[in-house]
Amino acid sequence: MKIRITLRTFIAVTAFMAAIGPYSGPEILSLFDEEPWSRLIFFLLGYIAMKDARGEEQPASAVWNMPAITAMAAFEVVMLGYGRAAVNAEWGYFLAIAAVWLGAWQVIDTIIEKISPKGRHVWVLNIGVPLIFGLTLLLLWETLTIGFAVPKVILPAPSAILLRLVTSIPILAADFVQTVQGIGAGYVIGCGAGILVAVLIDRVPFLQRGLLPLGNLVSALPIVGVAPIMVMWFGFDWQSKAAVVVIMTFFPMLVNTVAGLAAAGHMERDLMKTYGADYRQTLLHLRLPAALPFIFNGLKINSTLALIGAIVAEFFGTPIVGMGFRINTEVGRMNIDMVWATIVVAALAGSAFYGLLALLERRVTFWHASYRQGAA
Predict the structure, then answer these.
(1) Over 70: is that where the pLDDT of 1 sits?
(2) pLDDT per residue over 222-263, tens digit each?
(3) CATH assignment of 165-375, given 1.10.10.10, 2.130.10.10, 1.10.3720.10, 3.30.360.10?
(4) Burial class (CB in 10 A: 0-12, 13-18, 19+), 163
(5) Taking the domains of the chain in order of start, what are their residue ranges?
(6) Beta bridge partners of 24
């Protein structure tokens, strides 16, 4: 409770100081200048935080006061940044940014306090908190790059990246399709080979002493050294990128599957023997189902490794298309906003693929203890 009171007090003090401070200089401390609406909003933010800090009873509808006024203050900070504060930002502008950040922190703290992780509104907790936190980070990025007048060649603002993303959709789409071809083929081959070799190792134990160290050696090969060799072997098109992805995804899949196949307990294996089950039946009906959490763990790890491997491989040879080619080319042209736009596409694609795998894992392994405990 003391932490929350301290946070609300900080919000109140920071918001009140932002309301009277200069946003761009030279200015005098005045409540009646060109930004009266902004100052009024920060006064309201400080007033609400002060009432919360004093522990006054609030009606149920007042729960939305802090999120609403914080959102309005965030909008005003952006408007101030694109207005006069961008010319010569003063301490009042940066205090306004701090007040918005603290207000968003308080909103997240309230959501965590009010929403039960096992209640029917748990989606607010699972979606609202990451969304608010992410938007706050973007706001900080935007306003600080404006306030400090950071050159675009060093760090463009999110708005500049978004503008480049929207205006370059055909180019980015072509790059994405080219890169995904190598990722898809390499991911399927690498993960499939890892599972098959793991089953082979499990069936023939002496192979474990030979194949696992060899796989470990292959996984330790530097990608910047392997990629040029794969380009020379398989050409400049997506096949060479698929080969790099196979190398990167094979060993994590192999290790996770081997560990998963060993997860079935001796009691369950003995029970299968008493039923007269052979190796194939035990594998299909006991050991592979028990290994599914480990297999999905390897699939999720490889979802990011495959994307990284394909993009890095495109640095060393590709047709004039591809996300790695685009990053390498635009860095040379000093078009950093295009580089960030490509990074955003890659991050969104990787996150979406990871999310699909996590959703599939939840549907397939709903029986696992971790999900049963979470639903209890």
Answers:
(1) no
(2) 888 888 888 888 888 888 888 889 988 988 898 898 888 887
(3) 1.10.3720.10
(4) middle
(5) 2-150, 165-375
(6) 89
Joined tokens for residue 66: 């802090």
The reported pTM is: 0.78
